[in-house]
Design goal:
Blueprint lengths: L2 H29 L32 H6 L3 H8 L38 H7 L8 H9 L1 H4 L13 H13 L30
Length: 203
């Protein structure tokens, strides 16, 4: 093959490369899309209720004093059977995965003899000054890990107000000297008071 043929082949190859390269440049210019500053995009929408309107604000928690006024001890005893996998409720009963719950109401937090409490529960106890008040128990069994950070208790919690009140009413009976119930309508900080005469007390 002489030099003339080689030059023709090279010229053809270079021409092809030039055409392909030119087409690429023109295509990029025609169909170029700018890169966004931030990947993705945010969707902001108000939550809707089942009826299709905006979601209503979360209802305020009912005071435990009001819930206990309508609590049912027998129902609480039935619910407490779920707790017995980890807790005993007898006087002098053994500690299991959790401590014995006999005479729990107003007992200092993390103070039951013979039980190894988690660091989170010890911190919550504030050196024994914090007690298992009706309100503390109510908030704890609503969501243990949310109320006491670092607790080892794996129970998810009781979301229903009535279930918690029934269980707490039952726990109150696990004592030789059950503590007085808080007066309905009283805030959590108010001192407990016995039910008025004629009212049906929780057993």
């Amino acid at each position: 093959m002489d030099s003339f043929e080689i030059n023709k082949l090279l010229a053809g190859f270079l021409g092809t490369v030039f055409i392909v390269f030119s087409v690429g440049i023109v295509s990029d210019a025609l169909f170029h899309s700018a890169q966004p500053e931030k990947p993705g995009f945010a969707i902001e929408a108000a939550e809707e209720s089942a009826e299709g309107g905006p979601a209503a604000p979360a209802a305020e928690a009912k005071p435990i004093a009001d819930l206990l006024a309508k609590a049912n001890v027998e129902t609480g005893a039935a619910i407490f059977k779920k707790c017995q996998a980890c807790h005993s409720g007898e006087k002098g009963g053994p500690n299991k995965v959790g401590p014995d719950l006999w005479d729990l109401i107003d007992r200092p937090v993390a103070a039951h003899e013979g039980f190894a409490y988690s660091a989170g529960m010890k911190d919550f106890s504030k050196g024994g000054s914090e007690k298992w008040t009706y309100d503390n128990i109510n908030q704890f069994i609503t969501s243990p890990k949310k109320f006491v950070k670092g607790t080892a208790m794996g129970f998810a919690g009781l979301p229903k107000d009535e279930d918690r009140a029934n269980v707490i009413a039952y726990l109150r009976t696990l004592s030789d000297n059950p503590k007085p119930l808080p007066a309905p309508g009283a805030s959590a900080s108010n001192a407990p008071a016995k039910p008025a005469e004629g009212a049906a007390p929780a057993k």
